[in-house]
Amino acid sequence: MRRHYATIKDIARALNISVSTVSRALRDTYDVNAETRQMVLDKAAELNYRPNFNATGLVKNSSHNVAVLLPAITNYYFSTVFTGIQEVAYRHGYNLILHVTNDDAERELNIIRSLSFSSLDGMLVSVSSQADACDHFQEIIDDGVPVVFFDRVAEHVGTSKVMQDDYNGAFEATEHLIAKGYRRIAHLAGPQGLTFTANRLQGYLDALRKHKLPVQESWIIHSGFGQESGYQDFQQLWELPEKPDAIFAVNDRKAVGAMLAMKEMKIIPGKEVGVIGFTNDPVSAIISPSLSTIAEPAYEIGRVSCQLLLNHIRKKNFVAEEVVLPGKLIERESTQRNR
Asked: Domain HTH lacI-type spans what residues (predicted)?
């Protein structure tokens, strides 16, 4: 048997107020006082009221659907970001349509071309690591569809962006290695062309320069974000005539890959070569030795980016914002020389 849901008229009748007052209270408009709004919300919950988004969408040209583009969903960071997005979207009655690009620029473009924007209110996007050109996103915005970038952002596209503080996080990670006595510090960087890759690289370089330590181009390796990339990067470093004594990796997965390569070579992470990552993936606390890292506010990034998108949807002339959230240094065994 189909479940019965109350309507706005049912709520108005039960409270002996007008339908328009109930409607405005549910939409939280400025001309309804807090007491009346709470009374309406309580009665709506009691009567099992559910908004009819199909009907309101026809009136407001709104679908209550939001597309989310992620490079991946199986790793800790993006799954946590998505959880933050879900928390805000569902609380405000929005459905999420997830698309995963697998870090493939062509796939990203194909997804964009196949989307039905008439059935979307907006998009949340973390760009592919290969997506140097992001003109397709600017075209979407120019056509009136709100877009908010998070984590991996398109730097030259004019819209809201939510990021962790990549520069200061990288600076702090590198300075932590220096404070622990390491002096020849390499950087396993992300793919070139991404804003956060450049920001983390700059933080690393500035920390070295502040402490008058050498910057060696051969100690800076750009590659993918996965564990295998970190493994291969470390092998490449260890073929050099002058070897580093510490590594700052662009993320924890690359750091773990480097540590696995060290173990195969009988090199002790921490004691012989310091390692610090960036993310605070759960594996960083489990691997032995445990991995020092910069913890990213992944859940908060998802939550804030979704709220910004809803602001853009509700107010078409909403001024774009750039939100930068701080990370936190977590010291573990991989940066301790005297364990």
From this structure: 6-60
Q: What does the alpha-carbon distance between residue 55 and residue 200 come to, in Å, rounded to a whole number?
A: 47
Q: What residue spans in the chain does CATH classification 3.40.50.2300 cover?
A: 63-164+298-327, 166-296+329-335
Please give the span between the terminal C-alpha atoms of the chain, in angstroms, as a whole number: 66
Instruction: Count the helices and strands in the chain (H runs, E runs).
Output: 13, 12
| CATH no. of 166-296+329-335 | 3.40.50.2300
Give tens-digit pLDDT for 64-90.
Answer: 999 999 999 888 999 999 999 999 999
What CATH number should be reported for the domain whose range is 8-50? 1.10.260.40
Q: What 8-state DSSP symbol labels residue 94?
A: -
DSSP state of 67: E
> One-letter amino acid identity for 312?
H
Distance CA 99, CA 332 (A): 35
Beta strand residue intervals within 122-219, DSSP E: 122-125, 147-150, 161-164, 185-189
Cβ distance 271 to 298 under 8 Å? no
Question: Does the model's pTM come out above 0.90?
Answer: no
pLDDT for res 156 = 84
In the chain, residues under CATH classification 1.10.260.40 are 8-50
Fold of 63-164+298-327: Rossmann fold (3.40.50)
- Please report, for residues 191, 261, 333, the alpha-carbon distance to residue 196 in angstroms, rounded to integers and kept in the order given: 10, 26, 26
Give per-residue pLDDT as tens, 170-220.
Answer: 999 999 999 999 999 999 999 998 889 999 999 999 999 999 998 999 999
Question: Which pLDDT score is estimated for 339?
Answer: 60
Q: In a 10 Å sphere around its CB, with 0-12 CB exposed, 13-18 middle and 19+ buried, how is residue 154 labelled?
A: buried
Q: What is the pLDDT of residue 53?
A: 47
Give me the DSSP letters along 158-194.
Answer: -S-EEEE-HHHHHHHHHHHHHHTT--SEEEEE--TT-
